[in-house]
Amino acid sequence: MPDKKKLLKVKANGFEFSFTEAEAAAADIIQTAPGEYSLLHETQSLNVKMLQTDMASKNFTVEVDGENFEVSVKDEMDEVLDKMGFGLATNKHIKEIKAPMPGKVLEIAVTNGQSVNEGDKMLILEAMKMENCIVISTAAIIKKIAVTAGQTVEKGQVLIELE
Fold first, then answer.
1. The sheet that has 96-98: what strands, in order across it?
2. Are 134 and 110 in contact (CB under 8 A)?
3. How many helices (H) and strands (E) does the chain have?
4. How, if at all, do strands 140-145 and 121-127 pair?
5. Residues 6+ apart with CB under 8 A from 47
6. Is the predicted pLDDT of residue 98 greater than 80, yes or no?
7. H or E element in which residue 157 lies
8. What is the pLDDT of residue 16?
9. CB 22 within 8 A of CB 10
10. CA distance 118 to 139
11. Which end of the chain has fewer CB atoms surrounding its CB within 10 Å, N or C?
12. Residue 132 β-bridge partners
């Protein structure tokens, strides 16, 4: 059930809109083709085509009745992370990947000198009988892999150094 109090903030070509999850759920949206939708809200009908989607950053390029819009969607948690400085992580140059928890390195998916892009798998860390895929949050070049497959690591230990 959509939350009547939880706000979503949408920025589209410099304009900012806010609405609750319940209000968003009340919109009548029908998929007419892959990536194309017909949206009916109150008395207005719109044809929407998804041109580009980046689900990780919640950024989209959409065409609405022939006009393109750059759209960014943020919920309350995104706002809190932005205020804490974590929302800028993809814009910062990171120097190393550290273990988020103690565990055992099961697989290393990169090599020294390799170029990687945002979202690429770096390694798999087993912790509490669960496999955790560690991915990178920005483009980088692998400088040095500081661990080996099978090695046990502590929380905060450097796993991979980046250029």
1. 96-98, 158-162, 140-145, 115-116
2. no
3. 2, 15
4. unpaired
5. 32, 36, 37, 38, 39, 64, 65
6. yes
7. none
8. 82
9. no
10. 5
11. N
12. 125
Q: Which tens digit of pLDDT belongs to each residue from 35-50? A: 898 988 778 888 889 9
Token pair listed for 8: 């979503």
Is the whole-model pTM more than 0.90?
Answer: no
- C-alpha distances (whole Å) from 90 to each of 28, 50, 56, 57, 158 are 34, 23, 11, 9, 19
Mean pLDDT of the chain, nearest integer = 83
Task: Read off the amino acid at residue 121.
Answer: K
Reported confidence tier of residue 88, pLDDT bands at 50, 70, 90: very low
* Identity at 84, one-letter amino acid code: M
The position carrying tokens 């497959």 is 149
Tokens 């979202």 belong to 119
Per-residue tokens: 37: 């939708």
Q: pLDDT by residue (tens digit) across 10-28? A: 887 777 878 787 877 777 8
Q: Are 111 and 145 in contact (CB under 8 A)?
A: yes
